[in-house]
Specification:
membrane; MFS_trans_sf; transport; transmembrane; POT_fam
């Protein structure tokens, strides 16, 4: 008999859209909220961020057991969604609470994050299973496949909109005396999670609500431990497969499923590593992006550091659409057909991505700021919009510095002009013909001071229409960036 598509599943799909919008929104701006508002350093913020992600995923296990074995999925979803909303409200309040000390704001923020990871940990394992409960199998097998596609699309769409919009809200609007507005971003996310709860409750009378049963996780672990205990304590353990020792207390189906899980467990041992790296765009890569200007001139738009995370759901949607028609045939053409081969190939792509990230970080940071023992370093900044030339026999250099560019050189502090750990060296500055403010072939001689273990900057500039000078900038450069300051 033909079964109609259950309308109650649309409440589930829209609920998932709103919940993923909220979760990814918080995850997107969290690292910058920790560093810029709560004033944790990069390492501390990374630890807090990944701890939040870990706990949100870990909470899925006890919450799944709670929903399957005790409360039932609908009650678990409702109660834990309320906890989720409460966490959103607390975190939003923490971002507004300027009248409190920074320590109090941190406590409120941690309380909010605690409630959020408990809430999202409860929703994550229950919501899809609850949607699946609305179908009758095998009569509605095609319908449940359609539901799975729509559910996945809701996840990617919600996260894509959120990861794109939240950085704009927190950056483009100023509030509470700051040049950012995290309270606005958090407030929108709180509203979306409240909407998710309201939508879930709206379909209350339409849902199929199955009674709690034995949880598959508890049965699987029970099967393993019972089989091990029987094998160790029994005088005549089963000789076919050690899991067969669980016969009598567990069904043949449960034993067979447990054996299948253990057969592929070697593949899943790599999953914790993969997912820990997968979340790096939300922490280290976002902090890396703060060191770049993000300007896209062809779009007349500046991408925000945390906005780069929108590429994850964007490519998720693209891959979801292209897999069957484009990517699978493409993989097959190069001999990649089996699921394990596809996993391996994609893992190689992930490794290449992290190599690119490492090379990019090296390009941003540049050479090491450590100065070898017995040496000092000087920087010369060209303040003119034309090329200048520097040469020095003492430094063994003959170099051209571009317009508004810089040049650095390290040198051993050993010469006739040494006084302790300080050396004074001569240098000649010349100018190209395009430098209209000086006569042709104009050069002038000056001296530079080099201090062992220090870095000194010099700025080539014009003090007045008749005088060009190479000015020393301060006593020496600081090689340590202030925790919440900007570099020179």
């Amino acid at each position: 008999m033909y079964k109609k598509y259950p309308k109650s599943t649309w409440f589930v799909v829209v609920n998932e859209f709103c919940e993923r919008f909220t979760y990814f929104g918080f995850k997107t701006v969290l690292i910058l909220y920790l560093t810029r508002i709560l004033q944790f350093n990069g390492d501390e913020s990374t630890i807090i961020y990944h701890s939040f992600i870990f706990l949100a995923c870990f909470m899925a296990v006890p919450c799944a057991i709670l929903g399957d074995s005790y409360w039932g999925k609908f009650k678990a979803l409702t109660c834990l969604s309320f906890v989720y909303v409460l966490g959103c409200v607390v975190l939003t309040s923490a971002s507004i609470a300027d009248m409190f000390s920074l320590d109090v704001q941190k406590i409120l923020a941690f309380l909010g994050l605690f409630l959020i990871f408990v809430g999202t940990g409860g929703v994550k394992p229950c919501i899809f299973a609850f949607g699946g409960d609305q179908f009758q199998l095998p009569q509605q097998e095609k319908h449940i496949q359609h539901f799975a596609t729509m559910f996945t699309l809701a996840i990617y769409t919600g996260s894509l909109i959120s990861t794109c919009l939240m950085p704009e809200l927190r950056h483009s609007i100023h509030c509470f005396g700051r040049d950012t507005c995290f309270p606005l971003a958090f407030g929108v996310l709180t509203f979306m999670m409240l909407t998710a709860l309201v939508i879930l409750l709206s379909g209350k009378n339409m849902y199929v609500k199955k009674k709690p049963e034995n949880n598959i996780l508890t049965r699987t672990f029970g099967c393993i431990f019972y089989a091990l205990r029987t094998k160790i304590t029994s005088a005549a353990p089963c000789k076919t497969h050690w899991l067969d020792n669980a016969k009598g207390k567990f069904t043949e189906s449960e034993i067979s499923d447990t054996r299948s899980i253990l057969d592929v467990i070697c593949v899943f041992t790599a999953y914790p590593i993969f997912w820990s790296l997968y979340e790096q765009p939300g922490s280290r890569w976002t902090l890396q992006a703060t060191l770049m200007n993000g300007r896209l001139d062809f779009l007349n738009w500046t991408i925000k550091p945390d906005q780069i995370q929108m590429l994850v759901p964007l490519f998720g949607i693209i891959v979801l659409v292209l897999f069957d028609k484009v990517l699978y045939p493409m993989f097959a053409a190069i001999g990649i057909r089996k699921p394990l081969q596809i996993l391996t190939f994609c893992g190689v792509l992930a490794v290449i991505a992290f190599v690119f990230a490492a090379l990019l970080q090296f390009k941003i940071v540049g050479n090491t700021t450590e100065i070898p023992s017995g040496q000092g370093r000087i920087y010369i900044y060209n303040g003119f919009d034309c090329h200048v030339f520097v040469k020095s026999k003492s430094l063994h250099i003959q170099h051209q510095i571009g317009p508004l560019d810089m040049f650095n050189v390290s040198h051993s502090v050993v010469s006739q002009n040494v006084s302790g750990d300080v050396a004074v060296v001569g240098i000649t500055i010349g100018f190209e013909s395009k430098c209209s403010f000086v006569s042709d072939n104009y050069e002038f001689n000056t001296t530079l001071t080099i201090i062992e273990g220090k870095e000194i900057s010099y700025h080539l500039t014009r003090l007045n229409p008749n005088m060009i000078a190479l000015n020393r900038v301060g006593i020496h450069d600081s090689l340590v960036k202030e925790k919440f300051g900007n570099p020179n």
